Amino acid sequence: MSAAGRASAGWWWLILPAFLLLVVFYIAPIVQVLAISVTEPEPGLGNYERLFTSGAVQRVILTTLRICVITTALALLLGYAIAYAITLATPQAQGWWILAVLVPLWISVLVRAFAWVTLLRRQGLVNNTLMEAGLITEPLPLVWNEFGIVVGMVHYMVPFAVLPMLASMKEIDPRLLAAARGLGASRGAVFRRVFLPLSLPGVIAAGVLVFIFSLGFYITPAILGGGKTLMVAEWIGLQILDLIRWGLGTMMATMLVVAILVTPAIFSRIVDLRRIFGTGA
Amino acid sequence: MQTFQQDCVDLAVRKYRRGEIGRRGLLAALSALGVAPLAGGDAVAQAARQLVMVNWGGIANQGFGRFYGEPFMAANSGWTVVQDSTGPSAGRIRSMVESGRVTWDLCDSSASSSNLLGRQNLLTRVDYSIVKREDTLPVGFALEYGAAPYSFSSVLAYDSSKFPQGGPTSWADFWDLRRFPGTRLMRRDALATLDAAQMALGKDPANLYPLDIRACLRKVAELRRNAVYWNSGSESEQFLRTGEAVMGQIWHTRATVLERETNGRIKFIWPQALLQAGIFVMPRGNPGGEMAQRLLASMLANPEPQVGLLQLLGNGPTNPRAAAMVPQELRRNNPTDPENARVQVVLDGNWWGQNYQQANADFIDTITG
User: Fold this and answer.
1) Is ipTM strictly over 0.90?
2) B323 and B360 together in one domain
3) Domain region containing B185
């Protein structure tokens, strides 16, 4: 080993305490919990078999995927518009825009979920306004269903969609847009053929981030779902705390971990995630 | 999932904050529920002449047991009753007994848990030569592995402003979406819900058990699209108060509060309500031994504190002499008042003890997804 190699090996010792801490207090307990999925109620893959045989298990997975896909799509759409507006704004306005994006992030997810309940319930602000305006005669079912969950989750996820997309849009050289205009492209063509393709890595990164985040969402669906629209995280909690079916709960937890690991692995083949998440070039 | 006992604590604290009861009243209520813990942290039952009563907690460091503990301590000098608010779930009792280090004497449990744990040989049988059967209700309140010093009920509550022609009078009406349109509210728990479904299916309430679980689940599935489900008592109250649901199956304590605070807009009915026993159990090998039986006997034998509990929180007394002591204006809200008890159905704790786990898992699968 060269001198430089020994020196860099020495640096590795510095992270050993952190590494040990992580193994003992994080990885080992998780592995232990996941191991329950093949040992309870009896050793074997019986719990995993339920993935293919149990309608309830399949329903909860489908519900989760559906909600996550819809949430991701909507958050990307809204987030893209916001990020685009921020990119084109003056530097001073950009500061205010970014503050406006970040402030909701600092408000507790619990508070925001309850705020949506007061807005969306039968006698909430939205329904009352619509009824007084004479647009509807019966309150719309806006909450205690998938619609309510999606509203609450999109609201939570938009900042997470904006930030990676904003980072990638800021890297686009504005002179390229000017050059395209100079070569006779219309505004629409500049956006479609220059700006959009260049910002696409940011869109994919934001999509991966939001999707993974959505998969394990707990509080928002639990409050806005009315007890009957269950996503994976709440379902796992229910299995473990109320039904004492630890094997089934940890099986689903394992699937969740696998899904969260596999999603970025797939997308890292399409785009360079390291560049986008900012861990160096 | 919040238990009935935890919800009672929430209600008591709310009354206290609004000034409806004084601090003394709150402490009395909490200790009657067995909630007010010993100052200085966890109760430890190492001292020989000490009994540990375990409850569902919520607030710490509030005071000493007054209603259940003090009458016993007065009659048995040298003995103290301390409170532990860990929440004696069936799982916790099981792991404590199996670990061989039992520190609990008397736990606030339920009929179904007492049956479940008793069959696994994790509880001490109630010694009915010490505990008097005639101090509690005849059916379902004095069980092999536990006895009940209080009662509660799952009643049908409804929003009368939505039904000017007259409200529902049975679980069959509860399931009748054509005559009574609107969102239903049910606990996300099979217990008491399937019983109601079975009555809606037309089975005679006098011979309700055994329930036909599959038929009941199908009945539950009928309502799924028009129903919301509650986990905690306060949630159940909010759903009805804000008009999200037009009728629901909720605990009678919450129904009483709603009826009073909405000036009768929300009403509730006793017929076909599911009367349940607040069963206390003794873990096998409890440190206090036979004295726990005597404590239980004392809790059942003293009607006055039971009436005090009803006045503060609405838990029904179970001592047969208690009903007559209840002030006239409270009788309407007492689940064990003879007038009310007559029309209710006593939930069969033995049947549920044998079927709860599977039935509840199937129930959750039915209403979710």
Assistant:
1) no
2) no
3) 152-275+348-367
B321: CATH: 3.40.190.10
- A122 neighbourhood in chain B, CB within 8 Å: 183, 242-244
Q: Which of B265, B263, B217 lies closest to B361, judged by CA?
A: B217
Q: Are B242 and B354 part of one and the same domain?
A: yes
**Per the domain annotation, does B297 fall within a domain?**
yes
Listing DSSP states for A19-31 in one string gives HHHHIIIIIHHHH
B57/B171 same-domain check: no
Q: Kindly report, residue by residue over B112-171, the tens digit of the pLDDT.
A: 889 889 988 999 999 999 999 999 988 889 999 999 998 999 999 999 999 999 999 999
d(CA B29, CA B27): 5
Is B242's CB within 8 Å of A144's CB?
Answer: no
Interface of A with B in 53-92 (CB under 8 A): 54-56, 59-60, 63
Name the pTM for this structure.
0.80
- Which residues of chain B lie closer than 8 angstroms to A238, CB-CB? 364
Q: Name the residue in chain A with its Cα closest to that of B242.
A: A123
Same domain, B168 and B202: yes
Cβ atoms of B252 and B271 within 8 Å: the answer is: no
Claim to verify: residue B205 and residue B266 sit in the same structural domain? yes
Q: Which residue of B has its CA nearest to A231?
A: B369
Give the three-class secondary structure for B1: coil
What token pair was written down for B362? 């199937």
Cα(B105)–Cα(A58) distance, rounded to whole angstroms?
44
